[in-house]
Amino acid sequence: MIFELSSRKTLDQIGQGLQESAARHKFGVIAVHDLKETMKKKGVDFAGECMIFEVCNPLQAKKVLEANGAVSTALPCRISVYRSGDVYKLATILPTAMMKIFGSPELEPAAREVEEVVTAMMRESA
Predict the structure, then answer these.
(1) Beta sheet of 2-7, edge-to-edge order
(2) Is the confidence at residue 115, as pLDDT, over 90?
(3) What Å distances lie between residue 99 and 22, 65, 82, 106, 115, CA to CA?
(4) How many CB atoms lie within 10 A of CB 4?
(5) Do 112 and 4 contact (CB within 8 A), yes or no?
(6) Using CA atoms, how far apart are residues 110 and 16, in angstroms rounded to an integer?
(7) Cis peptide preceding 76, ω within 30 of 0
(8) CA distance 56 to 92
(9) 79 by DSSP, 3-state: which?
(10) CB distance 115 to 96 below 8 Å
(11) Half-sphere exposure of residue 17: CA atoms within 13 angstroms, side-chain side
């Protein structure tokens, strides 16, 4: 399931908000991908605006990776910020939904904790 919010803030304001909110919640922004720039470097003209923020809490990541190494295919969590008409959308795949793929019910509490923080960061930034 995807969690999505709309914002009338600028892309820079949303990005700054995500950086600040992540720090407050003891998450790190590991990387930021500007898809327009990435595609341009590959010779593809993409007119859209889309930034992807990779966020992670290392303690939570350690916990789930020790329980099931395959979870590494879904880490870090990603928050996408993209233009949709006259607003920006912030979207993420909910960690609780993603963890169901791995068939490890013991990961549910950690996924729920991460989900609460990621969605809070998005609300604070929107």
Answers:
(1) 2-7, 87-93, 77-84, 50-56, 28-34
(2) yes
(3) 21, 12, 25, 10, 11
(4) 13
(5) no
(6) 26
(7) yes
(8) 13
(9) strand
(10) yes
(11) 19
pLDDT value of residue 105: 87
Residue 104 confidence class, pLDDT cut points 50, 70, 90: confident
Report, as an integer, the average pLDDT of 8-20.
96
Reference 10, options 41, 64, 51; nearest CA is 51
Count of all residues that appear for the chain in the document: 126
State how far Cα 85 lies from the chain centre.
21
Q: Answer for the pair 82, 49: CB distance below 8 angstroms, yes or no.
A: yes
Which DSSP letter does residue 86 get? T
Domains of the chain by range and CATH? 2-125 (3.30.310.70)
Burial class of residue 45 (count of CB atoms within 10 Å of its CB; 0-12, 13-18, 19+): exposed
Q: Which helix (H) or strand (E) holds 95?
A: helix 95-99
Residues 54 and 30: beta-carbon distance below 8 Å: yes
Q: What are phi and psi of 5, to 5 degrees?
A: -130, 155
